[in-house]
């Protein structure tokens, strides 16, 4: 089934939810970027998605080899300038809004989710260097990262330190010339090695000698795969070894590496930002990366939905009105498809809305910064939860064929499942919401209360206000116990608010897209919003219920 | 992580929900069967689960070869008499209740889900022959099927006929000697071929010449892999070709075959029951098979939960109270684990409760027959929905390790996903509920109303009564549009009722198991029941919303 970029939908959300005109992007540019990225992704990246899943990258002594076609398709991406959309103007980028770059990334990832992780990670490296790098580092690295000629990675996780980055042990020892000798093993490094780019810029969290324990002792280092020569070109290989690539359930096109730095004591890195500034720099990378992972939920939901709709229109089964009909005509299949559409649109609206705040915050808007902080855990966690749900419904729509790998629905289901885990598990997002962001919620809730029209949606928004108020003064464990149900309620409330807004605009339209938009928005408010109200009891329950038995008894 | 059969829990549910004492099974027998099956499954079947997933069966010219160890483990199953538990006494079986056989099957499947599909399918063949076979057929086939020396298959699906069995085209032409020449291609045949048993008894739905169109023209045929010789032993191979085995997302230990019958015009089958009695015989097989698929939801949920609890107790991460602690102590991880426990127990209670009605109905209890008819779609659909949900939470509890295949959590997630699809998709179950079973609901709802205590649970039960009443007089499309949300609401109400009953009993206990049981029941009623009430709006929505746009617009 050929992938088609959802240009009309993306444009609608960029215009009416992200208000991209206010960010200086006019309709002509918008059309050119969305249509161009769509045509590129449809033609060059989507056809490689299945090969990425089945063949996948391979580990060799000489490094990771990508499957056939990926090198050329990546080169076409660089040459087409698709990496430069949101990159900084002073460094070879086009300086367009982050939210527009997100739309382009969505298209690439919907076409080929695993592949699109390479540019996604590169964005994180660019952000870190832009905000924390020295002018020299920026001049040397940003132009190549902007175009995608070089790719970036984030090296956080170690075997004993996953969500708990404060526990990591990698070392960075001054070499006396301003550089550091890096030593340690990092796991789960997406695109930690590959053969598509001239260099790979690893951003590595490590500890300097005598650093304090925990997160405050972390520093961030720039560790290139190839050290730069006097002209700034990749020269001698650094002392980095690809130990292995993981056997993952999905996202096979993305090589997930175990990297060993400094086995021979000769891995050279440079500090990014001040010593002990690692955790702050990490959050710079991570916050936007979290939005881009939420965006992966949109990617996989879009791809799964397109595939399911096409199958359901094609597959004849059962008799309605006497003759065989396509399964799309069966009410419960309709329900599944409309749910897929509505959830995908809701996730897109939520993520684009949050991404639009990045641009406003970057321009100095403090209110947008606060809103972004509040929306980031919602976009990451709920966007990815939707991706998993929609991919699962997609398998179901296909019936038995959905379980056969050749059909492609199963790949979406497998690909999607990592997204609630990485870049901070969704549980961590929920903890972030109730731990650091609760004070930011009342403003948004008040605004939604003033705008929502549907009675059920109003009830949900009010319930969010009530629960948020209770949690604000609750004991920490009670807050954490309620965090996930509250995150889901609140996310659905925000999505409902955004969907209702879109529905009002779409109701006036006559094009097939606007009719579909209106129907999906109506479905969302009528059927999905009330479900979230069912979470209120859990969001008000205390931790006591969870600790009624101890850990050992839990295994009884 | 070694699998441990949940004997205390199984015994509790068999005693207090299935009331197995009333079925003539005393405590000594119960203990002996549950503990014996547990020890067997733990020792012989569980250790092969991963090899079944990674190596899997292979197609060869000479038929399907099972992975290393499976032949011996299957032989041990036959020799241990584990297949005979529920098989009819007159034919080599022990004639114990169906619900006890289900508990044994649960243990086998929790240890090795794909493998356990072989006995699961054999149960269906036994049921069909017992109810529709001739005395000669019963005498020839039932003893070997009872022990498992021969296995059974169900051959329904064809490429153009999945859920719509009326569309199938396989032919059966009288050969003049009372037998039929079978011709046709069947797909998705679980254990359609393998090398573990001396014979395979295929039950094949096909059309005789001049049969009417649709389901009423179907007849059921017994088509052995090897024709029986004069002594009733497997002799000449029948004309059945294994065309291929499917590349499935999971359940790899079970070879899913494409079978071609009668390529050389020499495939001999016998009619089971009367000509055109195929659909009735199919439902005999299918109804109990549906319960056993609901039971697969329990299997995978149990296995995933055990794995997640063990991981969470072992994995140190993050600091609570200053020192590193196992992640099981984090509130949101606790919430996930308790939810897994509660959902698994709820699915088990629902499925066992339904299975207990099989035994009562077989003994002539008309009320139990009606209850069974009502509960079957709930047990199948909601049991498998729970299996998928719990397996997904299991991946999440593992964090990044959950996405790595070696950990095992991902296998559960992949294995589980077929269960909402086969033996009638869960959408078909929902259609069955609102199409044929609605009139049976008020009796159960009234009974629940008289018994439930929790206010939220009472509200849910009452909502089920209200929605059921509305649907009973609704137009067909409106009923179908609401079918799935209603099925879920109703299933959770029944589970809530069964969990509350168990909670009352467990509250009086002091053992770790009873404390856990009480905590899980409390969690279920307090947190999961209210969620289901959130489905009421969708269960009362008409089909109009789903057809607001046509199929073409859905692809806009």
From TrEMBL, chains A, B:
Pfam families: Acyl-CoA_dh_1 (PF00441), Acyl-CoA_dh_C (PF12806), Acyl-CoA_dh_M (PF02770), Acyl-CoA_dh_N (PF02771). Its cofactor is FAD. Its EC number is 1.3.8.-. The keyword Oxidoreductase applies. Residues 278-433 form the Acyl-CoA dehydrogenase/oxidase C-terminal domain. Residues 33-149 form the Acyl-CoA dehydrogenase/oxidase N-terminal domain. SUPFAM superfamilies: Acyl-CoA dehydrogenase C-terminal domain-like, Acyl-CoA dehydrogenase NM domain-like. One of its GO terms (molecular function) is oxidoreductase activity. Residues 455-549 form the Acetyl-CoA dehydrogenase-like C-terminal domain. Keywords: FAD, Flavoprotein, Oxidoreductase. Residues 154-262 form the Acyl-CoA oxidase/dehydrogenase middle domain. Belongs to the acyl-CoA dehydrogenase family. PANTHER family: ACYL-COA DEHYDROGENASE, BROAD-SPECIFICITY LINEAR ACYL-COA DEHYDROGENASE FADE5. This is Acyl-CoA dehydrogenase. It comes from Sphingomonas floccifaciens.
């Amino acid at each position: 089934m050929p992938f088609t970029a959802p240009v009309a939908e993306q444009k609608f959300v960029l215009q009416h939810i992200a208000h991209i005109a206010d960010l200086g992007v006019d309709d002509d540019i918008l059309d050119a970027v969305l249509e161009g990225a769509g045509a590129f992704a449809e033609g060059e990246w989507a056809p490689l998605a299945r090969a990425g899943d089945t063949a996948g990258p391979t580990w060799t002594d000489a490094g990771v080899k990508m499957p056939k076609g990926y090198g050329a398709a990546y080169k076409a991406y660089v040459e087409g300038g698709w990496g430069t959309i949101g990159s900084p103007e002073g460094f070879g980028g086009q300086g367009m809004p982050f939210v527009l770059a997100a739309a382009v990334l969505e298209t690439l990832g919907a076409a080929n989710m695993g592949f699109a992780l390479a540019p996604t990670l590169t964005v994180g490296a660019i952000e870190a260097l832009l905000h924390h790098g020295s002018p020299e580092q920026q001049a040397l690295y940003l132009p190549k990262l902007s175009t995608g000629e070089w790719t970036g990675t984030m090296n956080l996780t170690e075997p004993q330190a996953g969500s708990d980055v404060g526990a990591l042990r990698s070392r960075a020892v001054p070499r006396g010339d301003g550089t550091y000798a890096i030593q340690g093993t990092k796991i789960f490094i997406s695109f930690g090695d590959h053969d598509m780019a001239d260099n790979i810029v690893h951003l590595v969290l490590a500890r300097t000698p005598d650093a304090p324990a925990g997160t405050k002792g972390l520093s961030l280092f720039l560790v290139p795969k190839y050290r730069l020569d006097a002209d700034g070109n990749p020269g001698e290989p650094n002392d980095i070894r690809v130990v292995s690539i993981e056997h993952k359930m999905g996202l096979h096109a993305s090589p997930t590496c175990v990297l060993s730095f400094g086995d021979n004591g000769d891995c050279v890195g440079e500090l990014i930002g001040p010593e002990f500034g690692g955790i702050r720099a990490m959050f710079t990378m991570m916050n936007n990366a979290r939005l881009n992972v939420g965006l992966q939920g949109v990617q996989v939901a879009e791809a799964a939905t397109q595939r399911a709709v096409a199958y359901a229109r094609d597959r004849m089964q059962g008799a309605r009105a006497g003759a065989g009909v396509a399964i799309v005509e069966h009410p419960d299949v309709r329900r599944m498809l409309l749910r897929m559409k509505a959830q995908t649109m809701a996730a897109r609206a939520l993520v684009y809305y949050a991404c639009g705040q990045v641009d406003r915050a970057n321009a100095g808007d403090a209110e947008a910064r606060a809103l972004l902080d509040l929306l980031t855990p919602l976009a990451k966690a709920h966007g990815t939860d939707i991706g998993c749900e929609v991919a699962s419904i997609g398998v179901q729509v296909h019936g038995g064929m959905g379980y056969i790998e050749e059909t492609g629905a199963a790949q979406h289901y497998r690909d999607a499942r990592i997204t609630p885990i990485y870049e901070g598990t969704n549980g961590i997002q929920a903890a972030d919401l109730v731990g650091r962001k609760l004070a930011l919620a009342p403003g948004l809730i008040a605004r939604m209360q003033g705008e929502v029209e549907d009675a059920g949606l109003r009830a949900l928004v009010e319930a969010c206000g009530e629960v948020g108020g209770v949690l604000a003064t609750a004991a920490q464990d009670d807050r954490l116990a309620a965090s996930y149900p509250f995150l889901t309620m609140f996310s659905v409330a925000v999505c409902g608010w955004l969907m209702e807004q879109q529905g009002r605009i779409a109701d006036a339209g006559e094009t097939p897209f606007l009719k579909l938009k209106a129907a999906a928005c109506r479905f969302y408010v009528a059927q999905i919003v009330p479900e979230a109200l069912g979470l209120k009891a859990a969001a008000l329950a205390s931790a006591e219920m969870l600790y009624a038995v101890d850990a050992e008894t839990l295994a009884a």
